[in-house]
Design goal:
Elements (H helix, E strand, L loop, with lengths): L1 H9 L4 H44 L29 E5 L4 E2 L6 H9 L17 H4 L8 E6 L15 E6 L15 H4 L4 E6 L8
Helix pairs in contact: 2-3
């Protein structure tokens, strides 16, 4: 029996096949991982580009916080020509409301669908693009727009408003090719994407 065991132990005839199968498995997993990483990076970059376009629209069009168009900043020892007092508005597309102010659905629609007013997520010219024209899975519930006073505006009737405007896209998921059905939703959730820009004067429009 020991003779048979020694013969079996010294037999290397299947080693190459075993090594090849292990190496093939490792290389396949590595290749799949690199492909999925590239897909995920592309999708994240696409959402970031959409948020950048949304921020550009937000700083050149009517604010989603509709009360800001009538904001003067006067009172409480602030006179016309003084620096604009601090203010903040956070507008959620999901709740359709703004903290401390009124919600302008048309202004949010412009950010989402673009200045062309087609209310559709579809191909259009670069200057008419909205958020969902770049990434068609983005919906109002994914978008938050924040207006933060910087002290650069001037109080008056009318006032000039120069807030920092931040567009956030949250709740998006990676749509992976091979691992989509295997990974839990928590691992497929995309990090929050936000882009901030300074608005020179929200009253000017474009």
């Amino acid at each position: 029996m020991m003779r048979h065991f020694r013969t079996f132990k010294s037999d290397q005839s299947g080693a190459t096949a075993v090594e090849f199968s292990l190496l093939t498995t490792i290389m396949s997993v590595a290749t799949i991982g690199m492909v999925e990483l590239a897909v995920g990076f592309f999708q994240y970059h696409e959402v970031r580009q959409a948020a950048h376009i949304g921020a550009r629209i937000a700083v050149t069009h009517d604010p989603v916080a509709g009360d800001m168009t009538a904001m003067t900043g006067l009172g409480n020892n602030t006179n016309a020509g003084d620096a604009m007092p601090a203010y903040s508005r956070v507008c959620s597309g999901e709740s359709q409301s703004c903290s401390g102010g009124t919600y302008d659905a048309a202004a949010m629609s412009t950010i989402l669908y673009g200045p062309d007013g087609d209310n559709a997520c579809a191909s259009t010219t670069k200057l008419r693009m909205g958020i969902c024209d770049v990434q068609q899975d983005i919906r109002p519930r994914h978008v938050t727009v924040e207006y933060q006073g910087t002290g650069l505006g001037v109080a008056g009737n009318p006032a000039t408003l120069s807030p920092v405007v931040t567009v956030r896209v949250t709740g998006m998921h990676f749509n992976l090719i091979l691992l989509d059905a295997l990974l839990p939703n928590k691992l497929k959730q995309m990090p929050t994407v936000e882009v901030s820009m300074l608005a020179e004067d929200l009253r000017t429009g474009s």
